[in-house]
Amino acid sequence: MAEAHQAVAFQFTVTPDGIDLQLSHEALKQVYLSGLRSWKKRFRRYKNGILTGVYPASPSSWLFVVVAVIATMYARVDPSLGMIEKIRCHLPTNGYLSNQSESILSGLLFSTGLWIALVFTMRQTLKLLLSYHGWMFVPHGKTPTSVKLWMLIVKIFSGRKPLTYSFQTSLPRLPVPTVKDTMRKYLESVRPLLNDKEFQRMQALAKDFELKVGPRLQWYLKLKSWWATNYVSDWWEEYIYLRGRGPIMVNSNYYAMDYLYIVPTPVQAARAGNTIHAMLLYRRKLDREEIHPLMGQIPMCSSQYERMFNSSRIPGLETDTMQHLKDSKHVVVYHKGRYFKVWLYHSGRLLSPCEIQLQMQKILDDQSLPQTGEEKLAALTAGDRVPWAKARQSYFSQGRNKLSLEAIEKAAFFVTLDDTEQGFRKEEPISSLDNYAKSLLHGKCYDRWFDKSLSFIIFKNGKIGLNAEHSWADAPIIGHLWEYVLATDQFQLGYTDEGNCKGEPNPQIQPPQRLQWDIEEPCQEVIHQSLSVAQQLADDVDFHSFPFDKFGKGVIKKCWISPDAFVQMALQLAHYRDKGKFCLTYEASMTRLFREGRTETVRSCTSQSTQFVLAMVNSSQTNEEKLKLFRLAADKHQSMYRHAMTGEGIDRHLFCLYVVSKYLGMDSPFLKEVLSEPWKLSTSQTPVQQMNLHDPKYVSSGGGFGPVADDGYGVSYIMVGENLINMHISSKFSSPETDSHRFGNYFQQAMLDILALFDLDKRTSK
Known about the structure:
The protein is α+β, with helices and mostly antiparallel strands. Helices cover about 50% and strands about 15% of the residues. It contains 24 helices and 20 strands. The strands form 5 sheets. An 8-stranded mixed sheet has the order 13-7-6-10-11-12-3-18, sandwiched between helices. Helix 4 crosses helix 5 and helix 7 packs antiparallel against helix 8. About 45% of the residues are buried.
């Protein structure tokens, strides 16, 4: 109860002599500092709202326009062509102002209106400029003058110091493709996967849909695209993620790894101190909108950053919801079956790394035992959603359980001080990385809170990792945070020679607070059932994570081939050698060139890629013929990737047409079949977005996800520097068709075989 007494700002007792009032000056000071911090944040948000609302102009430009208009008036020049005089005639001053004051007020009103019109014109001009995507299809090194001029104008209109959300209202809306184009591209994508009879049948279904059902569904979708900010994103979040009733562990959540070979400190509490502090610094930059929008030639949408922190997925009977708070002053830490609430601020300031280390060390030193049912409580978030939703309503709606659950769900993020050691070990290079990946993906199924937007894991040997809930954002958003955290930890905060955080902690900081639970017997049974479901799912995951270090994108660029296309063709070749057949392949691409854009699918298995693969397994084909087919396949892949990024993909369009058909109660055999097709090879590249923060050897090992299909593979890869590609391959032990290690070996051989086609050694010698 000590913490409760410290939280009381004043106490009073009634005595025969009157009321004895005792004030706690320290508590009142904390109340004052907390309120001051809150008001500062409100003011900052208000100020940033104004700056974002007028971008690419600035509030100071209003003063410039006002001064210019008033100056011309004093010079007896009317810049308004008579409008200022008309405004003056309609001022309801009733003679209280002098003629001069009326003239100044009229000029002020006119100049404000002029400034607003200029701001609107600038924003619309920028939006029009950003709607042009032809620059993506310009061959490398052959940029025409018109595109260079466009780039220059975009740069001028983009301003010098954009805030995180400055470009949001200037980004164009995601366009709705025509039904005819989507049907054509769909049939093209499935042609290599179907025999002639199957293809003719699918052609007939597509034609029937295009002529009969499609136009009506398209009309509703067009209507939504005019009304909503993005015609895909809200339905994508709800129906693909939040309405899923199965476990989100493995099936939805994904992970991010630490450095591959480097451990900045072996001290668990110290690594926690620096990295948690780094995450909070990132959150502060995000609150202040100091994270610059990701920009290549043009800015990308930043809306996914909004729910990164202080967010949690709340289970429901039919659909889950995302809960997001504007602020949170604590994290919840899990260690050996106990939950601790750790405050992040003291005296109105953020805890320093050494102070967070002290808090973590207190938790590590705590020898108390878990309360009844507490140790495996988080298994509820790892199992099926409906039992968790019912248990939440029945056992966590009042008393200590409600308060403790709210502490978790309202935390900035969730932290696990893991009692295992993970990471790359030279003596066990293969199994060590596989175990590391599986630990980040699912752990023990009860030591991560899978509903939190971010579950941060610090292992006993100082290695770290992240498990992210998927509904609120995609992997590049997490990647941006993770790059910042690793760079800040290594290059800005650093450690002492003993491996501890730098600085001296304040010993007066409130210690971690144990969360209290009353877990009844029926609730324990639900926890046990959820754990059983989750454990079965986790045990079935066959994961293989490995560094491919034979060559990287540096060598691939010498071949004048897109590194991503190179890897994708290697995956196609590896899959054919592994299974002896082709399959529907998913590669994620971003649509963040549009407002609230998320992802689109690149269907990497094409007629061109299958012809190349068949040539590679045909010994009668010459290297020249194989190389020609490879270039055609890589070019086709790059073209599809660019079209997907520019809103010309097909899968999100088909998905939304299907949703509309369900709302209208219309049955479409074509859509039903298309949406039920399994992605037996699901792939994703993790981009490195902030190379300025890193030496290549200090870049994260990337991250991965579970298999999408029961008899398929999930593949994630990151190109680290110029000479390394880290791979993450998942499948299921229960499938006799798959083996992650076997596929990994086929992939490595495919990479080497494709590179051999270019004969770079002979070209270099020439």
